[in-house]
UniProtKB/TrEMBL annotation:
<dbReference type="GO" id="GO:0052716">
    <property type="term" value="F:hydroquinone:oxygen oxidoreductase activity"/>
</dbReference>
<dbReference type="InterPro" id="IPR033138">
    <property type="entry name" value="Cu_oxidase_CS"/>
</dbReference>
<dbReference type="InterPro" id="IPR034285">
    <property type="entry name" value="CuRO_2_LCC"/>
</dbReference>
<dbReference type="InterPro" id="IPR001117">
    <property type="entry name" value="Cu-oxidase_2nd"/>
</dbReference>
<keyword id="KW-0964">Secreted</keyword>
<comment type="function">
    <text>Lignin degradation and detoxification of lignin-derived products.</text>
</comment>
<keyword id="KW-0439">Lignin degradation</keyword>
<feature type="domain" description="Plastocyanin-like">
    <location>
        <begin position="426"/>
        <end position="539"/>
    </location>
</feature>
<dbReference type="GO" id="GO:0046274">
    <property type="term" value="P:lignin catabolic process"/>
</dbReference>
<dbReference type="GO" id="GO:0005507">
    <property type="term" value="F:copper ion binding"/>
</dbReference>
<feature type="domain" description="Plastocyanin-like">
    <location>
        <begin position="24"/>
        <end position="138"/>
    </location>
</feature>
<dbReference type="GO" id="GO:0048046">
    <property type="term" value="C:apoplast"/>
</dbReference>
<dbReference type="InterPro" id="IPR034288">
    <property type="entry name" value="CuRO_1_LCC"/>
</dbReference>
<dbReference type="InterPro" id="IPR002355">
    <property type="entry name" value="Cu_oxidase_Cu_BS"/>
</dbReference>
<keyword id="KW-0325">Glycoprotein</keyword>
<keyword id="KW-0560">Oxidoreductase</keyword>
<dbReference type="InterPro" id="IPR017761">
    <property type="entry name" value="Laccase"/>
</dbReference>
Length: 556
């Protein structure tokens, strides 16, 4: 019998354990000396863990008892032939309205390791999120020594204000959103924030044992450095795909990404801090300039020092530290689902830019130089439709989207020059998608630009993982830079951090038919339009076609 998880939501959603049916309500949570209602799943923040074995199928019954529309996305789950349960609002489904229900099917295929689930409507994922653990097949093992225990480490952000008020305000004014008031580890700000010390997350460890940290960046708008004082971390998986062991004293993790890392309790018994703080490459962007902490406590009889030491994290704008970290991660070829594509049939180069729209009469315009902030891919600022693109595609309904997303930037210029003409800042609006033939081998090059300002962008593709084959600073040169690709052991991931004023290249095989969202995982950029949709057409075989929709799809 397939595992059944219940996801009852009240102010957004709630995930419960196997064969349980729990009502979920908006829950009051106290952080930073004040209390506010937040959306939760089964009253928990962060939400409950979904556990499965490699290749299993899990059903999650979502019941929205909240006051907002909601959708849920299973981040990194490929969902073969089943885009109906993928979750992004108005891309693969219309939202689950208050009082509504939807039974979502999670079909695990090639994933093994740590993923996560989160709301994919408005900014509700700030509190509606939780882990997914996919274990090796029964009677098989990890490609590393089995750890003594596993530990969830969810990195996030906390606002004193209600998150929907934050979203509504910056979209109304055309400016940027208010930054968060705290970073968090497992929902707690930690010892360095007011009114927080008593609830700081504590990890108790036994000397000599090994712990698998399942690290998730669930933050809305910040890339993070993470470290454990006086301990190394050995990265063994990224985005639920195994990697060659990489031992470092810190990791860098972007929103949407997950890391499995081994921590060996091999230091003198004491208390130690694990900590995270922002990596921000932009010289003008404001961010929460503080450190979230949790405590690592060794068991045993000893007298601890009065105050744990903080780990030495890279400086907040240390681009080289982030760049080198991601360039050091190597995949594990013996665990690849297929070989790295070398004969590419579909080439896509897309700019990813921050933009502005001119101020129209009657608008509030708090963007740069009295404009309204926007973002784009290949100069198209995506306009989310009011009905589902997947349903329109499946039912041959016209007028919901256009098939005009360009394979190359429409304007060629020095993308990373310090000074660029102001007229390049204005994108076009559109609901433009890219249609890809089933079985194509695809290369996508994400080219950052310096329009408005350069910044790193975590780009996430639904419906598949991909090989991260290359990155560089400056403008991509197809003749020179392809020679630097790692086609031997690249990591197989679902979210890639494109470096500031640089580029990143990915390759994959388009063998999952359906409608799949591609977007920046910085929530403000997603809200401004830095996204598109890849439609992978059906193949010829019976098992190469999108499955029919479930009978309880939420109505539009």
């Amino acid at each position: 019998m397939l595992p059944i998880h219940t996801l009852d939501t009240i102010n957004n959603c709630n995930i419960a354990g196997v064969n349980t049916y729990e009502n979920v309500k908006e829950a009051n949570y106290t952080r930073l000396c004040s209390t506010k209602p937040i959306l939760t799943v089964n009253g928990k923040f962060p939400g409950p863990i979904i556990r499965a074995y490699y290749g299993e199928t899990v059903y999650v019954n979502v019941h929205n008892k909240g006051k907002y529309n909601i959708t849920l996305h299973w981040h990194g789950v490929a969902q073969p032939r089943n885009p109906w349960s993928d979750g992004p609002e108005y891309i693969t489904q219309c939202p689950i309205k208050p009082g509504g229900k939807f039974r979502q099917k999670l079909k695990f295929s090639i994933e093994e390791g740590t993923l996560w689930w989160h709301a994919h409507s408005d900014w509700l994922r700030a509190t509606v999120h939780g882990p997914i653990f996919i274990y090796p097949r029964k009677n098989t093992s990890y490609p590393f020594q089995k750890p003594d225990a596993e530990v969830t480490v969810i990195l996030g952000e906390w606002w004193k204000s209600e998150i929907m008020d934050i979203q509504e305000e910056f979209l109304r004014t055309g400016g940027g959103p208010n930054i968060s008031d705290a970073l968090t580890i497992n929902g707690q700000p930690g010892d360095l924030y007011p009114c927080s010390k008593s609830e700081t997350f504590k990890l108790n460890v036994d000397p000599g044992k090994t712990y698998l940290l399942r690290i998730i960046n669930a933050a809305m708008n910040v890339v993070l450095f993470f470290s454990v004082s006086k301990h190394n971390l050995t990265v063994v998986a990224a985005d639920a795909s195994y990697t060659k062991p990489l031992t470092r004293d810190y990791i860098c993790i972007a929103p949407g990404q997950t890391v499995d890392a081994l921590l060996h309790a091999n230091q003198e018994p004491n208390n130690y801090y694990m900590a995270a703080r922002v990596y921000s490459s932009s010289p003008v962007l404001t961010f929460v300039n503080s450190t979230t902490t949790a405590r690592l406590h060794y068991s045993g009889n000893y007298t601890p020092t009065s105050s744990p030491s903080l780990p030495k994290l890279p400086y907040y704008n240390d681009t080289r530290a982030a760049y080198n970290y991601f360039g050091s991660i190597k995949g594990l070829p013996k665990r690849y689902p297929y070989k790295v594509p070398t004969n590419i049939t579909t080439h896509i180069v897309t700019t990813i830019s921050l933009n502005t729209f001119p101020c129209s009469e009657g608008q509030i315009c708090e963007g740069p130089n009295r404009t309204r902030s926007a973002a784009s891919m290949n100069n198209v600022s995506f306009q989310t439709p009011s009905s589902s693109i997947l349903q329109a595609y499946y039912n041959h309904v016209n007028g919901v989207y256009d098939r005009g997303f360009p394979s190359l930037p429409p304007f060629i210029f020095n993308f990373t020059a310090e000074y660029l003409p102001l007229d390049l800042e204005i994108p076009k609006r559109g609901t433009d998608v890219k249609v890809i033939k089933y079985g194509s081998t695809v290369e996508v090059v994400f080219q950052g630009t310096r329009l408005l300002q350069g910044i790193d962008h975590p780009m996430h593709l639904h419906g598949t993982s991909f090989y991260f084959v290359g990155q560089g600073l400056g403008n991509f040169d197809k003749h020179k830079d392809r020679k630097t690709y790692n086609l031997v052991d690249p990591p197989f991931i679902n979210t890639v951090l494109v470096p500031i004023n640089g580029w990143a290249a990915i390759r994959y095989r388009a063998s999952n038919p359906g409608v799949w969202f591609l977007h920046c995982h910085l929530e403000r950029h997603l809200s401004w339009g830095m996204e598109t949709v890849f439609i992978v057409k059906n193949g010829k075989g019976h098992h190469e076609k999108v499955l029919p929709p479930p009978p309880d799809m939420p109505p539009c």
